[in-house]
Specification:
This protein is 30% helix and 19% strand. The protein is an alpha/beta fold and 332 residues long. The strands form four sheets. The protein has a five-stranded parallel sheet. A five-stranded mixed sheet has the order 14-13-12-15-16. Strands 1-4-3-2 form a four-stranded antiparallel sheet. It starts with 24 loop residues before the first strand and ends in a 6-residue tail after the last helix.
């Protein structure tokens, strides 16, 4: 399951076996990323999977978020698969073939038509070597016969590590990692990170809870799991961890009833900004939530759950978080 649809159960995968094959020996011993002395190519992903190919892959099939991240690092995918409504694609990517994976079913003929050398996505279960975008890739018959998969974690590891890993992958694919634009983007990320660190230090008693709300219940996000929240915590933000998180997706969520939210001492709520979660206005108007001291103080802010894992996108999130912390006070 992807983080964006944690409430719904994933549909059964009904993909027929894919024809064709590509050489992709996947070993257990890590090797240096990129081109090897014999001209072959290797990369060790965050699942511990070592991908080895006879030459550097040039045709990349990617999820939208990972595709944008790679594109901003200088690597343009040949096609995208995933949800069509999450990210605004750059013009250069909007023209690419796009497969809507909302039903978790992949079209074998479409996959083969793209002729990918490598499939890139994020993984949502840290201890599952087969996690591909929240789905067990072994349940997709013939997938890796079309191309090997490489995944960067979206959970457990800190977000700054995730950004570095995307850089490493892009570099292994031939990107120039010292362009003026990328240097400026890194510096802006560092500046925004330090702004959050300073704001958190000024409010050491401020308690933060990240949530996604529905009319029926509220979901409490885990700062020991979600990579962005892990990074916020590393910067000194006191993001409260759930009491008893579920096991799926590396313990990303805990479901709460609305009746108990008043029992939690929270000074700032970060609220899921996706369209199908309750908006800030709806949340503040909720008859139970409106009674919480943080709600009365107006200390509720949008939380961008679905973000492109690149410096520019994350910098904007950090800048907003720094402002939210500066504008909040301890109320409980």
């Amino acid at each position: 399951m992807k983080r964006r649809d944690f409430i719904a159960s994933a549909s059964a995968l009904t993909v027929t076996a894919l024809a064709g094959s590509r050489i992709s020996a996947q070993e257990s011993t890590p090797a240096a990323s990129g081109i090897q002395p014999d001209g072959s190519w290797t990369f060790t992903d965050d699942r511990g999977r070592v991908i080895e190919l006879p030459e550097m892959p040039t045709r990349i099939l990617a999820e939208p978020g990972t595709g944008i991240a790679l594109f901003n690092l200088g690597i343009k995918p040949v096609a995208l698969f995933g949800y069509p409504d999450v990210f605004t694609l750059p013009e250069e990517l909007a023209e690419l073939p796009f497969f809507d994976w909302s039903t978790y079913e992949l079209d074998p003929e479409w996959m083969l038509e793209q002729q990918p050398d490598l499939i890139v996505a994020q993984a949502w279960t840290a201890d599952d070597p087969n996690d591909l975008a929240g789905i067990d890739e072994t349940t997709i018959p013939g997938l890796t016969a079309v191309a090997p998969t490489a995944c960067i974690l979206a959970v457990v590891q800190s977000l700054d590590v995730t950004l570095s890993r995307f850089e490493e992958l892009a570099g292994a694919l031939g990107a120039d990692l010292e362009t003026p634009e990328l240097i400026v983007a890194r510096e802006a990320f560092t500046t925004a990170s330090e702004a959050v660190r300073a704001a958190a230090a000024e409010k050491p008693g401020l308690k933060v809870m990240a949530v996604s709300a529905t009319p029926d219940d509220i979901w409490w996000a885990n700062p020991l799991s979600a990579s962005d929240l892990v990074y916020f915590t590393n910067l000194g933000v006191n993001v409260l961890p759930p009491d008893d998180p579920e096991t799926r997706m590396s313990g990303l969520w805990q479901q709460l009833s609305w009746e108990v939210i008043g029992n939690y001492a929270v000074d700032l709520f970060l609220n899921d900004d996706r369209a199908y979660a309750l908006s800030l206005d709806d949340l503040l108007a909720h008859e139970v939530f409106a009674l919480h001291p943080a709600a009365k103080a107006g200390q509720v802010s949008d939380w961008t759950i679905e973000y492109v894992p690149d410096y520019a996108s994350v910098t904007a999130i950090l800048e907003k978080l720094a402002t939210d912390l500066q504008n909040s006070e301890v109320v409980m």
